[in-house]
Each structure stands twice: as C-alpha cells, then as structure tokens.
C-alpha cells in the first residue's frame, strides 16, 4: 500500500517556459528508459521477489523513489508549457523564427489532448507500454537489466542536459543525474552481493552449464569481415565466469542441415510441388497425423 | 552487405511435432529478449559505432551470428507444426485430452496467417517491435544492455528447455544455451576492456559527475517499510565506481515545493478557479506570453 | 448493410491550405477520442446490443452518422494539404519563418505515405487502434463511456477551434461542436432512460451489491496529504446511488497480509534462499503439485 | 513523493492455485480498464489539476489507493501460479482433461518471461499502454471518463467473480467490487459538485455554445433503418443541459458538397487525369503555391 | 455520408455455438487482412482518389460493401459465443476434454471485456490498427495492395473454412469466399484498365525511370547459395515492363565504401577514440557546424 | 547462416548534413514499406517456402540483398545527422529560419536515444513491428504482396527523391529506385512463372472455387451513389481468371436476416429486457448449455 505527499522530491522550477524542450522531455517520462519504466520495472520485480529481506526491501525502496521522479518530470513539463502558443495558427510564424521553431517543434498532443500537461508517451508521441519492463524473478538477470536501464536513462538525461540553458531545468537534471549515478552504483553493488551471498553466479541462470554443448560456449564466430574482432579480451584467456577459456573461430562453418520446412498440409494451401515428400495429413482416425504420433509417444501400444 | 547459405548454424531436428511447444517457442523469435531483438540491437549498434576496429568488428560478428539464430528458431517452429491439427474443429477433442490441450494451446495465427510457419511475434502473439532494441552510441551503456539481454534470453531458453522432453529440441537448445553463455561472458569481458582501454569508466556516461548534485549521488532513500534495505553493500562503503561513499537515508523528506501546474490558458479549457493566479495568455502582440518571454531572454532590449 | 453517398454531411471548405493544421487535425480522425473511435465504438455496441428496439436503433443511427464525420475530417485534411511543400528541402526555409514552421510542423507521412491525404493516425502519427473502443454489452457502462468520449472529443475540437483562423475550417468545426453537444445530451438522456425503464440502476453492474464487502463501499481512503479531500460531497451524505452513506477514512491502515509471492519452482530459476519455505514442485505423478491440488478439489477421494 | 508499506490493502489469499484463472486475471492489471489504467489516469489528472484544494486532493487520494490495487492483483496472480505446470510438456495432458485445460489456458509469458509472476499486460497478453488513460485538464470531461472507467472496471470484476469458485479469490474480489462501487458514486458526486461550485456546466467544455451551429445541436439524424430510434427521451423534450430542445430528423440529407481531394502535386505521383483542374505546384519563387497563399494572407501586399 | 439497414448482407446462422472457433474467427475481423482492413483501406483510398469518375466510384462501392462484412463477422462471433462457458472455473474440465479444449481455446476478452461479443482484434487478441492499411494516392500501387490483400484474406478464409464443420458457418464462408474471388478479379481488371487508360504503366510510379541508375534495374544479385535462383524467368528475357532485359549477377560485389558513421558530437556521449577524425562540433556562432554548412550552401557568401 | 562484409552495397555519401531529411528518411528504414519490412517479409517467406529450388532460392537472394539496404539507409541517416544541433536550445532559432526549421523538424529520438544514429522506427517515430510483414506459405498471395510492397516502397522513395537536392543522397536513391524497379519486375515475372509451372492459378488459393457460392463471385455491388462505377472493365466481360463473367448489381439488397446477438448470459451483465428470448444458461450438469449442445453433436445418444 502506498501513501503520497504533495511535496516534490526535489525542486522543479524552470526559469521560463520552453515548449520545444517540454516535447523532448517526454522521453524521460514515457520513453523506453524513462521514469515510468524504472518505476514499473522495480515494482514488478519487488512484488515478484521470492525472498524476504534485503533484496526485496531494496527494490521496493527504489521503486517507490522512482514514482516520485515520474511526478517531477510531469510537473516540469506542465511548467515548461505555461503560455505555450497552443492556440496560434501557422501564419503567426511570419517574421519570427523562434515562433516558427516552437510551432514546428511542439508536441501537438500536449495541447490538444492534455491541455498543457505531460502525456504518458515518449518524445515522438508513442505511448509508454508494458513491454519496456522486465521482471523475471531471476535477480542476477534483472539487476543487470536495472544497471543497463539506469545507464541508458542517465545517458539520455545527460544529452537533454545540454539541450537547454535554463538554470532551473538544469538544476533538476543535476539531481536526476546524481540519482542515476547512485542507482548505477547500487545495482552493480547488488550484483556483487548476489554472488557474495552464494545466490547467483556470473552466468544467468547458472545451473544449466552441464546441460549445454560446452564446446560452443567459448568462441567468437567470425562472420563479418572486420579484421580486428580477435583483438579483444573476449577472444582470449579465461572468461569472466572463470569457467571457460575464450577463443576465436576464424572461419565458422554451418553445423546443421539445409534449412527447410516440412511438407505442407493441403488444407493450408501452401504452394507445393511435392519436393519435400508426401503432404502432411493430420488425422484423428485411421490415419496417423500429429495426434497419432503424440499418442504413440505417450502410449506406444494403444491396443495393449 | 550480407551473404547467406542455406545450411543452418546448428541442427534443428525435432523428434516429433508439438504445436503447443511451437506456440511457446515464439518467445525466442519475437519476444522482447528473443533472437530478433539481439540481431537488430547488435546490427544497429555496429552501424552506429563511432570507432574503427575491434569493438565494431566484434559487434558485427555477433549480429551476423544472431541472424542465423532467428533462422534456426523459425525452422524449428515450422518443423514442430508438421501435421498440426490446424483444420480440426472443437468437437474432435471429445475423448482425447491431448487433442484438447493442442486445440487450446495452439497459436491460431501459426495456422491461419502463416500456414504452418513461425510468426514474427512473441508467445502471446504480440508482434515484435523496434522499441525492444537499444543502440545509443555509448558502448558502456549498450554493452550492459547486451549483457542483460543475453541473461534474460538465456533464462527464457532455460525455462523452455524444461518444457519439452523432445531430444531433438533439447539438442538445439543445448547449443543456444551455450552460445548465450559465451555471449554473456563476451559482453562482460568487453565492458572490462572498455575501461582498460580508457574509453569508458564505471558510470555511463562518465564525464558529468562534476555537474551533478553530488550529495544526492550516494544514498539509498528509504521509502518502503521493509526493514532490511540497509543490510546490503549498496548502503555502505565505497561505491563500485570508486568515487562515492554509499549510505542510507533512513527518513528521506521531500526537498521540493508543492506539486502544481501553472495557471491554464483559457482556450485550453482546463477547469480553473483562479487558485494559481491569473490565467496564462500567450501573445505575439502587445501582451507578453511565452514567446515574449523567450524573446526577452534572447534579446533583452528589443527596441535597442 | 451500408449505403453511401458522395455528398458530405456538411461543408468542408477551407479558405486556404495549412499543412501544420492538417497535422494537428489528425487527432480528430485517429486519436483516442477522434471520429474513428466513436464510429467503431458505436458500431460494436450496436451489433452487440441484446435488445431489440429503441436503444439498438439509436446506437446504429449515431454510429452511421459518425462514419460520415471520419469522411469529413479526411476530406478537410486533404484540402488543407493542397500544394503543401512536401517536396521542398530544408534550405528553402532560409529567409522565411513561415516556411520554417511548415517544414518543422508538417506530418512527414501525410506526404511520403499517403501522397497528400489523411493517415489513420493521431496528431503524433501513432496509428489508430482497436483498444480505444469499448463495447461491453452493458448499456449503462457503455453509455457512460460514450458520454465521456463525446466530452473529450468536443474538448479537443474546441481546442483545435482556437488553433486556426481559417473561416472555412471554423465553419466545419462549428458543426462538429454542435453535434458533439447533442451527442453529450443524447447519452446523458439515454442513461436517465435506462433507469426509467428499469433496465439499469446507478451502479454498473447493479446486481452484485449484496455480494460485495459493503463496509468498504462507502468511504474515501485518505492516502495523500492534501488537506481538503474531505471537503467535497463525496465524503459526506447519501451517495448518488441512494444506497450508501459516504464517508472519509482519515487514516486508512492496510487490512491485508504482507506482500509476497509463493516459493518458486526451481525450473523457473527465480533467485531463492528458501525464505518462503520449500520450493514448489509441480507434479503429475506421485508428487502433488498444482494439478494434484486441483484434482483433489474436484475429486477429494480419487480412489473412492 | 510516495511512501510504501509491504502490507497489502486487503487480503489476497487464494485457497488453491489456478493458472487458467491467473491468465484471465491479467485483464484487471493490464487491461484497458484495469488497475494500471486508473492508477496512471488519476495520477496524471491530479498532477495536471489547475486548482488547489478539494478536487486535486481527492484525485491524489484515489490515485494512491489504486496503486495498491495493482499490487494486490499482481500478488494474487503470483499466488495463483504456485506450482503451475510451467515446465510440463504436451503429452502430460494424456488422460487428464484438467491438465489439458491448464496447458491450453495458461499464459505462456507468465512462465517464460516473468517466472511465475504477473505481466504488465491484459488477458490476451497485449502490454498495457499509455493511450488507455486520459487526463485532459477539464475536470468534467475527466470525471466522466473516470465514472465510465470505474463502471467498465467493476463490470469486468463482476464477470471474473463468476469465473472462479475459490473462496479466497472471491473474498478479494468482494473488496474490489465494493471499492469500485464507491468510486462510481464518488465520481458521480464530484460531477454534481463541479456544477454546484459553478466550475463546469453540463456540456464539456461549456463556453463555446454560442460559437457552434445551434441548429445542428438538437436532433438525432436517423441514418439506420431501425424503426424505434425516436421512441426515446433523446428525441423529445428538453435536453439534460437545459438549453436545447431535442428532436428527430427523420430523413437527414447531406448538407455539404461532393467529397473530393484537391488536384495532386505531380511530385507525389497520385494517379491523375486532370479531372480536378490544374495540378498543384507548390512554389517559393515566382509561382504561388501554398506558401505564397499563406504569405498573401499574412501580408497582402508584399511589395508595399 | 452513409446509411445503414439492420438486414445483413448475407445469412449468418451457425447451427451451434463454438467458442473456440469464435476465437479463431477474430482474424477475419481484426487481423491484418481482415474485414476492418479492407474497409478502411478502401475508404481512405476512395476519399484520397484524385480523379472523378469510375475509379473513385468503384472504390467507394467496394468500401461500402466491406463495412457490411465487418458487421457479418461480428454477428457470427456473437452467435457462436451463445452460452459459452465464460463463467465456469477450471475444475469444470474434469472428465470432459471438450470442456478442456474450450476453456483453453477461448478468447478471455470476448467474455471479460465484450460480454459475449466480438473484439476489434485478431485471433491472438492484438487490437486492429491503422498501420494495416495503405492509401497512397497512386492507384497502381494501391490496386496491387488491394489484390494482394484480397488474396491473403481469401487464403485465411479458406483455411478457416476447413476448421469447422458447422453447416451454417460454412454457408456464410462460401459467400465470403465468392466475394473475395470477385474482388481479386476486380482489382486485377482495374490494374489492366489503368494501363489501358494511359494513367499508369507497369512500374509504380512510372516516370522516374530515366532518373534511376538503369544498370542496376535489371539483374538478380545472387547473395544466397541456393543453386537454382537463375532458373526462373526473372533472370532472363524481357521484363514484364517491356523496358528492361533481366539478368543474373552470379557474384555480386559491394559497390560502396566501408560502412561507418561520422565522428560524434561530444555532447551526445558516443564512445569515441578519434578514429574517424575530429569530433563534430555544431555551431551557430563562429564555428561552422551543420547550420553553418547549410547556410553556406544557401548563401555562399554571407558577407556579400 | 549469414556472413557480412563492412563494404556497403552502394555508395552512401551525402554532400552535407540535413537533419530534417534524416528524420523523413526514417520512413525507408522503419516504415510499413521500408527496408526492414521487405527484409523480414522475404526471410520469413523463404524459410517458410515448401519447395526446394528456384522459388526458395530466389526469395533468399532478395532477402539477403534487402538486409544490405537496411544497412545503407541506417548509414545515410547517421551521416546526414553529422553535427546536427541536437544540443541547442530553442532560443538559438532567433534570427535564423533554417535553424528554426531544423529545431522543429528533427527527430528528437535520433539525438536523445540513439546519439546521432537511425532508429528502428518510421518518419513519425512509431517503431517498426512484425505485423507489417506477411509470409503465408502461398506463393501467389505472397508474391502479390511483394509486388505491392515494392510498388509502395518505390513510390515513397520517389517522393523522397524530390525532397532533397543533395547530389549524394540523390545518387543513392537512384540506386534504390533502380532496385525497386527490378524487384517489381521480378515479382511480376515470378507470378507469371507460378502459373506457367502449374503451381498456382489466378485466384489465391485456387482450389475452393467449387465450394463457394458462385452466383456471388461475379458482380459489383453498387452501394455508393457515384454514377460511373459500371463504366470499368470490372463490370463487364470475362474476369481475369477466365472463369467468371463479371457484372454489375445496380441495386443490391440484403440477403440475410436482421442483425442481432443471441440472448445474453446473465452472469455477463449485458443489459437485457428479454426481447431475444430466454437468457442463455451455460451448463455442465443437467441443463443443456453450449457444452451439452456440442456433446450432442459429437455423440447424439450419450446413453447409447
């Protein structure tokens, strides 16, 4: 359960309106690496965490913090839109390139749909969606996604930091940059801790190594003609997981058969000349189609 | 430019058809962490790489490999669908729970739309889309995304490995698991190399640390009541970046003003009682709206 | 079955082209509250109406009218795009801010994709989609959605009315505003009529009131610190449904247990330290997993 | 800024797992009328509210409550998935229709992607997205959308109430039904209060009535042949807004000209035979295209 | 403007309910090649047609017909859902595989969201969207898209024809198949007529042939190792346009330079080692960045 | 399996940067008819082709070529973005309309998200998605889709050709136009060859003609009042398939019953007054609901 205070986590005080920048700032609220994403990613990870204690508590702390960041960006956008020329027509651009830039660079939906407020969309107006988040239950995989997400998010914030010279906007972004720095450190530390606690190892997930074809777990397949791919650490020496020697496969050859589909079912009307053999006829009666085959596998002697 | 051979990278030979599994396997081709995602993510990163040499060459090698994995999964799905009861009606389930499971668990579009082949969609039928990928130009941020993506991908493959007992399917997955293991090691090694080469440091991007509000770059804001959030390494000691001491803010308070938007423009019809002051009137003429303010900032003395 | 005449429902005669406005007007054709939405929402509601007579007939009348509105907006957009500088390059902006505004503010797809016509998308270019509509079969819920949709639609039309000074465009919008006024009145009247006819009461749906936990059906949970939430009619007196006294819960406390998931299935690789008890092992054989439990519930004595 | 407690708003205690129901329950978390929608709709409305006081405070109370409902449904789904046969293959259905139903009716992503937890998607696996919400700044329009949303949400909850016989699930739903009842009453009461406070009238927005073509604001256009459309209150008497007499237009005729686009720009390659006159030639030089026309409108005498 | 009659274009009378088939039939209403697509594709083409007369009139006839097909499929789905076990729980599958198939194979949203009616979505529940249609203004390109769309649509209908043995459903599909046959013939005939009328030639669009690099307009680049690609008519003889001789390029070589991006702007934080030269510095002042370069191109002597 | 060379298929050398054009060019990489679409459409068709030999080999050749076109457009976009004013603020537009046009017309995500590179999205920023492609297994239907796709793609390229005067951009487009010309010829030739080989006839699919209601396979239903619809070849003479005489139905009448749904299930809460008869009660026990009816159909005498 949540509680809310109207006071913002940090100051959100632009010195002057800037509707073009309000458009760009949408990326930080509704982009794939914006505040909505980290909020919902952490909430779902926290609720899906299968241990009591420090990891779950940590995730919920950060998730709750991020919701306050959505609030900050939404507020900043509304304030940057103050007095935006939402209701001026094209000809008002005559004689004034700044007006022209604003008319061209505004987000139409910030005026038409939300009446001067933020949208839940990115800087191109594409609505935020739930496929941006990941909460797999595996904390190593998820913390890597979190560290990656905070890296992309801080990168975008850093770029946006240079797209304005408004001291109030920059002041808020200095706070966001700092939190993103801490959050990167935090998830990197949490990855170390997972290993220290013996919960996860280096490869996610870590207990199928003996099932996999080990001979294919070690080398770079050289399939593009750039000549320097073998110059890096990934092609030599012990792997970061400490369990494999890494190498370079200079001229990899296909190991499989020729690509093809099975002969088609005539009732599906795939074009066919018989080249792959008899057409496939699924049957539930006397003929043996897929169900027959599955049933055979389950019960090899149906008459027994 | 690309070239293609019809021979598959590895064997793709299911022992028997299984349309329910063919449905689930869609996740590995068109899911957010499926083969299409890594293919396009690496291609775009490679094309967007701003250095000649080992990093670019590495990325293009892996990108080209992943395209062959899309091919393998698409082929596996087609082969698992051989003779699927695409054209049987509901009543055929009478007396046979396996048929019932198949009729319920098939992907309708694998029959109706693609005629017995894979779709470019996930295991719930949602089409793959370009927002799943990231190619930011910043190699540290991107390699973290790559390591995270390979972790999620291998995790999903591992789960799918347990959902079948078909030896042919399992054999292919043993290869995929192995490659995902190598790819995790590879991106982790590449992250180390970026630092060793002096190209990127621990925090992405790494040169705005002096701009940010450092006092907010260090501590966990405790906003959820789980009691153990301060038990982890993220709340104590030196941060992984070596530049911050990490701490715990047990009772964080809001640092900003009260959340509010500016007074509305009457022509946008936001409900208003004047509580925030005079309504905002944008103007291009005598009144000073946003454009006037921006112009003032640009040219403080328009009559000068 | 439908019939069509080429004559438009109302005049669509812009005085002059305006490609920036043509971009904004996309919101009224392909936005969440545009004409496509009301057309398809009413069609699906009408086809899904489970009564013969006035309600179904009403819905089909309005649905058929709205299709004509899609036609009007599509025509207006094409006419506003006449001679748009679709094929001019950036440098043509030199010396002319109006050209600059147009180059920046045009919808690229209106030229590249539709060759000077409307797209089936909103003012940010996001395609219209079927999740914008609702047709639940419950007329009270749906008529409320209709009244809400017409309110949002008229609001957007009113905002767009102020974004142009073209008398021909404004003339068409005066007609659209009028129809939206009537449609709001219409759905509000239809809601009254549903109650007068004894078909639906105030709460949708209205016959589960005796199933629900009544003690939680009456009061505002005060979870945000704004001090005036109890000043409104929603916190005092008889509810609009005439069946509840409304109140205010000043300090609501959680009524449930602590949030947690169940112990994980090891084959799903959720990180786990045993804190929630034994890992869950689904079984179809001797062990009792979920299926065993479900079967127990169905047939408590399988050997009986 | 937000705070969180791990204790749930209400009990979430299913008696037994039911993965098929866990699939259906996704609608309440990630469907167009699920808990994510009301959470984000109310948050954005609250942040975008342009008045201090009771309305803003009310919206934030409810928004904060709804976030706790997302948490409840996510937790219920995880608990219903305990021991789900995520890792069983198709042939396990042999001999057991309940297993068959579960294999067919499960959400594959709840196992493959989230490892036994909820997805941020609806019951068909389509991710939740930001276009489901509306926050227009106009409280009358938005409160109508809220009342409609709560009606659709309670309707779906009521349907889901009948799709299970698990007493623990039903107990939670009894709470959700009750809250949805209160929320419907609440928004209906708030609509009354807006009018009582003189902030909004019956038609949203309410101050353009004198601009619109009043003669078209009153009557039902009879465009479908159902004979009873004029039997309802919407075709007779005073409108709910008290400002119009409602009527019936039995044989509406088109009032506009014939539908057509303008002559095409040859560089856009629309097929053309000259039927609409000279092709349109945009020009920035001597010829007068759209820019010339716009410039004329702005400055009728460019040589003056 | 449109008019509607309640009578259906053709009989829609299933003999018995079949909720699994009702799920599959969604493809014909909301799939990429379903009735919504052809309806909206033809409407937008008709409204965007830049000639008076037979082509525009033809398109509008067919568009209006297709709307009636949406109505037919929506009605069929509702009738197939009569008495569907929407409100039964999983355990009801015990002992009855047909029930199991139905519980697994139903569309949950057809019950939860639409209350027993069709959704505006495909057979996997993905909402229909506006990007499925095309209306380019070029009739040759669009008529090809129409012929292709009708081909895919009829193919899907033919597959669905074999997935039921309900005589009433099959009767309706016999009508749909027939109309799709006519529509294929119709668009193929219209393509011939465009050429006969001298409006379009074989290649769309047909008047840039002299601009293109003709030497690359004739031969198949052999980039995959399948040995028979040169056995077809596309590698020999006169092209269908009558203007090119077609050939085969057995060993195509790249004609371009090495792939690379430009040196990055430091403020965008792309990882960089200087390998591509000096970082790019955009400037509006003394330095010459992109704007300076563009201005040079426009006005080579700014001081002149 | 694929291999890659860093050398581009053709020269990609813009003379100068142009960020507005870089925005528009997104349509050719991530639009519905851009290079991603043809790449993935052909790959999936090739992998799904059910014959060995020339058709499959052809498709794979072209698919592999198209991947190189994605690479070319992505490279061109990055080069056009060199030094783009990504990090300049709105006021820099003062005094310079070209800057204004650029600030308004840039794609914000090309700077914020990809750091000066292409996105996998169209010219309005909507991500490319898998529903743009089709691979049905039926080569006639698919080759028609391919010819249509190449027509739309070349049309868009032709429009973009006129939107720039950069000789380097135009040079690349001359190559793309030429390839699109060949590809149109190629798929048209392949359609002829399918018929010559006796694999497919004119109507897709071609073997259900005797099942369909032939009387409805021949005439244009005249449902819109444009008077010239019968003037074309589609209303007279032998159809292109050589098997039907085409005609004109001047006054088509509905052939079906009145549109209605079945009586609702009370537990789904559709508003109902009994007009359609007794409410539907699904049953698994003594009452006969849908399952009873289905079981009757399967086994008419369950006691026999």
From TrEMBL, chains A, B, C, D, E, F:
Binding sites annotated in the UniProt record for Mn(2+) 2? 66
What the record notes about the co-factor is: Binds 2 manganese ions per subunit. Binds 1 Ca(2+) ion per subunit.
Q: Which cofactor does it need?
A: Mn(2+); Ca(2+)
Output one GO MF annotation: metal ion binding
* Binding positions for Ca(2+) per the UniProt entry: 57, 61, 224, 226
Which keywords fit this entry according to its UniProt record? Answer: Calcium, Manganese, Metal-binding
Positions of region (Disordered): 219-304
Residues annotated for Mn(2+) 1 binding in this entry: 35, 69, 150, 183
* Family stated for the protein in its record: Belongs to the manganese catalase family.
**Record's protein name:** Manganese catalase family protein
Q: Which organism is it from?
A: Gordonia aquimaris
């Amino acid at each position: 359960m949540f509680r809310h205070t109207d006071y913002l986590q940090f100051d959100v005080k632009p010195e002057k309106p800037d509707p073009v920048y309000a458009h760009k700032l949408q990326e930080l609220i509704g982009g794939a690496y914006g505040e909505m994403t980290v909020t919902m990613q952490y909430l779902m990870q926290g609720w899906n965490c299968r241990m009591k204690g420090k990891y779950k508590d940590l995730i919920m702390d950060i998730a709750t913090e991020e919701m306050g960041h959505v609030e900050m960006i939404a507020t900043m956008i509304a304030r940057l839109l103050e007095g935006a020329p939402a209701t001026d027509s094209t000809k008002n651009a005559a004689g004034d390139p700044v007006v022209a830039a604003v008319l061209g660079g505004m987000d139409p939906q910030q005026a038409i749909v939300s009446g001067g407020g933020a949208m839940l969309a990115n800087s191109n107006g594409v609505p935020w969606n739930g496929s941006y988040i990941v909460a797999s239950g595996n904390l190593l995989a998820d913390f890597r996604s979190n560290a990656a997400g905070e890296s992309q998010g801080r990168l975008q914030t850093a770029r946006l930091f240079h797209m304005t010279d408004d001291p109030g906007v920059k002041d808020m972004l200095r706070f966001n940059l700092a939190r993103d720095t801490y959050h990167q450190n935090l998830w990197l530390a949490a990855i170390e801790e997972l290993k220290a606690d013996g919960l996860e190892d280096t490869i996610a997930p870590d207990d199928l190594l003996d099932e996999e074809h080990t001979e294919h777990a070690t080398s770079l397949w050289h399939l593009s003609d750039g000549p320097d791919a073998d110059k890096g650490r990934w092609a030599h020496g012990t792997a970061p997981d400490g369990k494999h020697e890494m190498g370079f496969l200079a001229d990899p050859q296909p190991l499989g058969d020729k690509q093809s589909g099975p002969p088609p079912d005539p009732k599906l009307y795939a074009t066919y000349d018989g080249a792959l053999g008899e057409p496939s006829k699924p049957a539930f009666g006397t003929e043996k189609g897929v169900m027959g085959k599955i049933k055979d596998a389950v019960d090899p002697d149906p008459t027994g």
